[in-house]
Design brief:
Blueprint lengths: L19 H8 L7 H14 L7 H26 L4 H32 L11 H22 L8 H14 L6 E3 L5 E3 H13 L9 H12 L4 E4 L11 E5 L7 E2 L12 E5 L1 H15 L14 H12 L10 E2 L3 E6 L1 H8 L5 H5 L6 E2 L24 E9 L2 E6 L12 E6 L8 E10 L6 E9 L3 E7 L10 E8 L2 E6 L9 E6 L2 E13 L4 E7 L1
Parallel strand pairs: 9-19
Antiparallel strand pairs: 1-2, 3-6, 4-5, 4-6, 7-10, 8-10, 8-12, 10-11, 11-14, 12-13, 13-14, 15-16, 15-18, 16-17, 17-20, 18-19, 19-20
């Protein structure tokens, strides 16, 4: 979006306004409820200052003024990111590009001031201004990278090269462990700010649900002091787990030491040791498993368990892949979300229409019944439950890698429940799956994603709580799975509490159940053990 020049703060000579007091007054007049227009104006106005020469201190002062509206919008993005429905998420994703450009322009402003001040000396001795500008530049580049990951896109070219060079600049000055004020308040060392984005990248953002990357990044603000960076040398005596190689002369993202060719070690290679961090995340994970909470944990309650498990694996000993992939061609039909998937696995029929008829008696019978006798055959003509075709890239025993060369009609997100059916070959039945990773192509429309099949045959059922809110005590769609002899339920988010009394509807029968252990909470569902009461 290119804003009207009349919206920009211009001086009488037509140049962009750079006097801090006047800029501050202009910022107070902007319509902040109009996100798209205001962010576009802010970004354009700040970019226009790059064409003008000024003292580095003045440019830093302008940078701090423009940071205020940026932080306001950033806080809104972070607060909303992990709590959105798929429809709301699509709206938020449309804002990511503008926020990414804004962050990149802020980083460019800091870098320009740094270049202007690098050789500047003062009569008072050492110039401390460069360290503050390095801190700002690394912070904004980190944010731009996170916005890219929220788009599930590949990092822009040269972003890692800039991050590495900024860290190296401070390290060459011997100032990388000096505390410097942060743009958002507080302080941190340059090494800690740099390590935060390095460690955020190592958790593999393409496997995270939308918005979760901000939670990890913010948590690392408290935990990053558990790590340290040192030159890479004597690798033969170093355990590879929890350690990541940084090539400060390249545009490469951090690489696990286990995947690095140590024969190519150079003075530009550094090593980040995250072993203490991995142990800390593991302790918090174990505490949650034992129902112990820590008020200092910044992760949201509904995602803390899964995110801690994700971090512990990423920073500890990542699991080796044990399911080989096989390249395969063909098409897959896919439906997104619990309700559409339930509809199709139930043979294109709406189960709730039957369940909400006058209730039958509650049965204490067991759940082990095979066959399709419990499918509820009520016709539905819902137009919201359409399917889409995806191309298969490869297949393993655990699922599929898929691609689509056009934008999906519905928003797809990591952690969403899906139904998949192979439309070529002999396989015809619907399977229950979960989107585990997602990658988008920003150059042209195109998506790739990974589906884990959690059940080859899932039984559509309905379930309700016997106590709780009005919404909880109404029947909702669910899937009954039998895995390793145990029964589990897959439901929408929010139904599960430990030892909750439930009623399960299967055909004409009702079963009294109790919820057991929570197995997984994802963006679009919960899965937990159940037992008959």
């Amino acid at each position: 979006m290119n804003p009207d020049s009349s919206a920009l703060p211009l001086r009488k000579n037509g140049e962009i306004e750079t006097r801090p007091l006047h800029v501050e007054e202009w910022l107070e007049t902007l319509p902040y409820t109009d996100f798209q227009q205001t962010v576009a104006v802010l970004q354009s106005a700040l970019a226009a200052t790059h064409k003008l020469g000024m003292k580095p201190g003045t440019r830093l002062e302008l940078l701090e003024l423009y940071h205020r509206p940026y932080q306001y919008y950033l806080n809104l993005q972070i607060k909303a990111g992990a709590q959105l429905s798929s429809r709301q998420m699509e709206t938020l994703q449309q804002q990511l590009q503008l926020m990414k450009q804004f962050a990149a322009t802020l980083a460019m402003t800091a870098r320009k001031a740094l270049d202007e001040s690098a050789n500047r000396k003062t009569m008072w001795g050492q110039n401390k201004l460069p360290l503050s500008l390095v801190q700002h530049a690394i912070t904004y580049l980190s944010h731009a990278l996170i916005f890219t990951y929220l788009e599930y896109a590949r990092p822009p070219r040269n972003v890692w090269k800039q991050l590495h060079s900024l860290y190296k600049f401070s390290a060459d000055l011997g100032q990388h462990n000096q505390h410097v004020p942060l743009p958002e308040g507080g302080s941190a060392t340059i090494e800690q700010t740099y390590s935060k984005i390095v460690l955020t990248q190592t958790v593999d953002p393409y496997h995270l649900p939308f918005g979760a990357i901000w939670e990890i990044y913010q948590q690392l603000g408290d935990w990053v002091e558990q790590t340290h960076i040192q030159p890479l040398q004597n690798t033969g005596s170093i355990q590879p787990d929890s350690r990541f190689v940084l090539d400060l002369a390249s545009d490469m993202a951090p690489l696990p030491l286990a995947k690095f060719n140590t024969d190519k070690t150079s003075p530009e290679h550094y090593l980040l040791d995250a072993s203490r961090l991995a142990a800390l995340a593991g302790r918090h994970q174990n505490a949650l498993e034992n129902s112990q909470t820590n008020p200092e944990l910044k992760l949201s309650s509904h995602s803390a368990r899964s995110l801690l498990a994700h971090m512990t694996r990423a920073w500890g000993t990542p699991p080796k892949r044990y399911l080989p992939r096989e390249d395969i061609q063909g098409l897959i039909q896919m439906t997104y979300g619990l309700n559409p998937t339930h509809f199709h696995i139930n043979g294109g029929r709406d189960l709730l229409q039957q369940v909400n008829k006058p209730q039958q008696s509650v049965s204490a019978d067991g759940l082990d019944v095979d066959g399709e006798d419990h499918l509820l055959h009520i016709e539905s003509t819902s137009s919201n439950y359409a399917t889409e075709q995806w191309e298969m890239v490869n297949q393993s025993a655990g699922g599929f890698a898929l691609r689509k060369t056009s934008k999906p009609a519905q928003t797809v997100r990591v952690g969403e429940l899906v139904g998949v059916r192979v439309t070529t070959g002999t396989e015809k039945h619907w399977c229950l799956g979960v989107i585990r990773w997602l990658m988008a192509n920003t150059d042209q429309p195109g998506y790739q994603l990974g589906i884990q099949i959690i059940a080859q045959k899932a039984e559509p059922v309905a379930v309700r709580a016997l106590q709780g809110s009005q919404a909880d005590t109404q029947y909702q769609r669910a899937f009954l799975l039998k895995q390793s002899g145990d029964h589990t339920l897959v439901t929408g988010r929010g139904l599960y509490t430990k030892a909750r009394s439930l009623e399960l509807a299967r055909g004409e029968k009702r079963h009294s159940l109790t919820s057991g252990r929570l197995l997984e909470t994802a963006a679009g569902f919960e899965q937990f053990n159940i037992a008959s009461r």
